[in-house]
Design goal:
alpha/beta, five-stranded mixed beta sheet, disordered C terminus
Length: about 300
């Protein structure tokens, strides 16, 4: 088998490669674009704008860089705003250069691979989805923190031999939280605490009162009080995230009318992608409108599997 031209075909003639770092970025362009084809830029915002200006002066249209931690995000956003086509590549796909690589060699290696189309671009959602994702991830962290507080409450109760969890499936429900908060405020009588049960609880008052007989150790009551306060803090943070999500979704809903109107006239290219993104946002908005109700129901009644 023979080939007249075994060389690689240039796919991106106006390419650049960026080695992303914590303190500085090394940028490489083709040698025919600048007498100094590799330059170092610090990570300050002004330096990132200088980097974009230099790439524009070198007539660069597409840029390849590695997804290193979160250090790539500021430069990605600036280059995207400037109109560059940014390829965010997996670092595992660029480790084929033998020997130890310097930052300069890394940027040149990225430039070479990208020039010949040997790098795959990682998926990046539109900016509207990225904003939504940031709020949603922060909300998820708070939900996880609140769940951890519930676990610590149950642990403190068990150490005091208060077996409330044996008669109530979830102490984060309405009955569980009412009893725990009464304990924190100083109530110790099991029968008075049992009177706080919700009528929908399957366990009787006698069973709940029996489970609330324990040894009230002051250090564990202190832990219980702190976990209750921390749980309330997480609930406030979750509510704040819900407000920000709702504001963003309302803004995206306003923009979607304009974009979808354009999408009816132009079905190809960027407009079609924008329409798909807006439809995804609309589906998320519908889910978000129903989720706070579901969360309140689960917090109030102890979750879908609670015996309330």
């Amino acid at each position: 088998m023979q080939s007249d031209d075994p060389g690689l075909e240039v796919v991106h003639p106006h390419a650049a490669g960026i080695d992303v770092g914590n303190g500085a970025h090394y940028v490489a362009v083709r040698p025919d674009r600048d007498p100094e084809p590799v330059r170092r830029f610090e990570c300050f915002t002004a330096d990132l704008h200088r980097l974009a200006d230099w790439l524009q002066s070198c007539r660069v249209k597409t840029v390849a860089m590695q997804s290193t931690g979160v250090y790539w995000i500021p430069i990605y956003e600036i280059l995207e705003q400037r109109g560059f086509q940014v390829y965010l590549v997996n670092a595992r796909h660029t480790k084929n250069l033998p020997g130890r690589k310097s930052d300069v060699q890394e940027s040149q290696w990225l430039l070479k691979l990208h020039t010949y189309g040997l790098l795959n671009n990682s998926f990046q959602p539109p900016s509207e989805i990225r904003v939504l994702r940031t709020y949603w991830r922060q909300r998820g962290e708070h939900v996880h923190g609140a769940a951890t507080c519930i676990q610590r409450m149950q642990k403190a109760l068990t150490q005091m031999n208060v077996q409330l969890a044996n008669v109530i499936s979830d102490v984060s429900g309405l009955t569980g939280q009412t009893i725990i908060r009464a304990i924190v405020t100083g109530e110790r009588d099991p029968r008075k605490l049992a009177e706080l049960r919700d009528p929908r609880i399957h366990a009787s008052r006698e069973e709940i009162a029996k489970s609330l007989e324990g040894n009230w150790r002051p250090e564990l009551l202190f832990v219980l009080q702190q976990e209750v306060e921390m749980f309330d803090t997480y609930q406030r943070r979750i509510a704040e995230c819900d407000q920000q999500l709702q504001k963003h979704l309302e803004f995206c809903g306003y923009c979607s009318a304009l974009i979808l109107t354009r999408g009816t006239q132009k079905k190809k290219g960027k407009t079609s992608q924008e329409c798909s993104s807006i439809r995804a946002l609309q589906r998320t908005a519908a889910d978000q409108r129903s989720r706070p109700h579901k969360d309140r129901r689960h917090r109030r009644h102890g979750g879908p599997n609670a015996r309330e």
